[in-house]
Amino acid sequence: MNSKNESFFDQVYEVVKRIPEGKVTSYGAIAEFLGRKGSARMVGYAMNAAHNLPEVPAHRVVNRNGLLTGKHHFNPPSLMQQLLENEGIKVENDKILNFKEVFWKPC
Predict the structure, then answer these.
(1) Tens-digit pLDDT profile for the chain (107 aa)?
(2) Which residues partner with 34 through β-bridges?
(3) Residue 62 φ/ψ, nearest 5 degrees
(4) Is residue 35 assigned to a domain?
(5) Which CATH number is 48's domain given?
(6) Residue 93, number of CB atoms within 10 A of its CB
(7) Residue 107: inside a domain, yes or no?
């Protein structure tokens, strides 16, 4: 991984650290905020690498439809849903039920 990617990952982590408890955002919203619209997949790669960084609440980043697509990177996979539910977010069938209400747009 080159320093450019590491720098992008660090930028992603700084945005994710700002997501308020009880809120979620999407990979695409983070990419757009960072001026890299179309780089949602790169944000996903950053999130996959963040699971051993306890200060980065990776569980608060979901796909654009509110699906817990990153759950397989948690150990156990049910941990992502558990962490969200602990913050009052309702999840059913790996999807956030009140996604529009709990969505946080980086600004």
Answers:
(1) 445 556 999 999 999 999 999 999 999 999 999 999 999 999 999 999 887 789 999 999 999 999 999 999 999 999 999 999 999 999 999 999 999 999 999 99
(2) none
(3) -130, 180
(4) yes
(5) 1.10.10.10
(6) 7
(7) no
